[in-house]
Amino acid sequence: MTFEEGVALSRLTTLGTGGPAAAFARPESLDELQEALTWAADRGLEVAVVGLGSNLLVADEGFGGLVVKLGGELAAAEIEGERLVAGGGAANAVCLHRARDAGLGGFEFACAIPGTVGGGVWMNAGAYGSDWAAILERALVVDADGSRWLTPAELGLSYRRSGLRHGQVVARARFRFVPKAVDEIKATIAELQALRKAAQPTNKRTFGSVFENPDHELSAGRMLEACGLKGHRI
Q1: Model confidence over 68-108: pLDDT tens digits?
Q2: Rounded Cα gap, residues 173 and 153, in angstroms
Q3: Residue 164 is part of which domain span?
Q4: Both 166 and 106 in a single domain?
Q5: Residue 192 lies in a domain
Q6: In a 10 Å sphere around its CB, with 0-12 CB exposed, 13-18 middle and 19+ buried, how is residue 233 labelled?
Q7: Domain annotation covers residue 184
Q8: Domain count along the chain
Q9: Can you say how many angstroms the Cα of residue 230 is from the centroid of all Cα atoms in its chain?
């Protein structure tokens, strides 16, 4: 396991901002991930995980702990019957393509989420009426003390939240899908991608949607429009 110093985090985020990481590692197996987390714990360092960097704002002064970016088997995705098993670092797009090609539906909503499996578990990512909690069977969570598989209930998944804490890393996840015609899956993906393109500037450096929808009949976006604040700058 190699640990680097001073890696520019701006290269790993969609906004292209942020200072360096005090320490940086790219574990490619469970053993390497465990080693990295133990290394950080022994030195009293905080741990942060970077996926595709699409929901991440890094301070200009950087991060004083260990930044982990999962690779190798921890970023792979495979179909097992009607289930998909993916590493926490696997891109949602890769998982969606695997499921689509296998004729498995249920993950189409993720075409609008430019992130990773682990990030999705951490925040119970969702869009267009579905989320990780609806399709996740269990996730393998690793920290300095070891690893264990947790169900959605044990993960504490709720609207855009989980009960995970810093220092815990989602190494793998197991999803359950349903058989579906490939053409139908493709049509749904095309429809959702068109909706996303019409609603958000997908060709610019953004976080995507940054507002949390309230418990109300109107979404955050509709409320902003009603107040005349759409496009307002401060």
Answers
A1: 999 999 999 999 999 999 999 999 999 999 999 999 999 99
A2: 14
A3: 74-179
A4: yes
A5: no
A6: exposed
A7: no
A8: 3
A9: 27
